[in-house]
Design a protein that fits this description.
Number of strands: 6
Largest sheet: 6 strands, mixed
Helix content: 40-55%
CATH architecture of the largest domain: Alpha-Beta Complex
Structural class: alpha+beta
Strand content: 5-15%
Distance between the termini: 18 Å
Number of domains: 2
Radius of gyration: 18 Å
CATH class of the largest domain: Alpha Beta
CATH topology of the largest domain: Aspartate Aminotransferase, domain 1
Shape: globular
Length: 199
């Protein structure tokens, strides 16, 4: 579908933001995020990155930051804010839609399509990560296990892989969320596998 193309999503968001007043409300931005990305930042699992903001409602946090802008807010401003405040990388999400990778995060499916090959599943709070093949992958390859090269790469990143079930797991030793740079390495390994073995 056209709407799933990364540039289409980003452009659609930019056009929607451009139509808003100079300083839109958090609620107006919330509706755009739902419409374009199907992401609900008000879910309980969506937590602020900064501990000092814990306990505050996501829309209140967003409202406070939006009102600090002294120029016409852009789609890029909003994407940066959402990433900084809640750890949701909208540009990265838009890119995943064309790569046949499903992503479950913040208690909701961020990206999920019928012909996706691999799932990246993070627990509430992003403490654990699970990577496993989709039914479409199993149908396409006849295997229930992730590609061996991907398993080896994930093991080198600290994952444990269950070869019988075909899944790989990673668990933080502390209650902290998986760091962003580590998430990028995980996604990068999955993207590389999809691009080199299924393109």
């Amino acid at each position: 579908m056209e709407e799933n193309k990364p540039l289409m999503q980003i452009e659609k968001m930019d056009r929607a933001i451009d139509r808003l007043p100079k300083r839109p409300t958090a609620l107006e931005i919330f509706h755009i995020l739902q419409e374009v990305f199907n992401i609900d930042i008000t879910r309980e699992e969506v937590r602020p990155v900064e501990r000092t903001m814990s306990g505050r409602k996501p829309l209140d946090i967003l409202e406070t930051h939006v009102q600090q802008f002294d120029h016409k807010i852009t789609g890029q401003d909003v994407r940066q804010l959402i990433n900084e405040l809640f750890g949701i990388n909208l540009e990265g999400i838009a890119g995943l839609r064309q790569l046949q990778i499903s992503l479950y995060s913040k208690g909701q499916w961020i990206v999920q399509q019928e012909d996706d090959l691999i799932v990246v599943y993070t627990s509430p709070g992003d403490h654990n990560v699970k990577i496993y093949p989709t039914p479409y992958y199993e149908k396409l390859t006849g295997s229930t296990a992730l590609p061996l090269e991907l398993q080896e790469e994930l093991v080198s990143l600290g994952f444990t892989c269950d070869k019988e079930k075909g899944k790989c797991y990673f668990e933080m030793k502390s209650e902290q969320a998986v760091p962003d740079d580590f998430k990028h390495r995980i996604i990068g390994a999955v993207v590389y596998t999809v691009q080199t073995q299924f393109a």
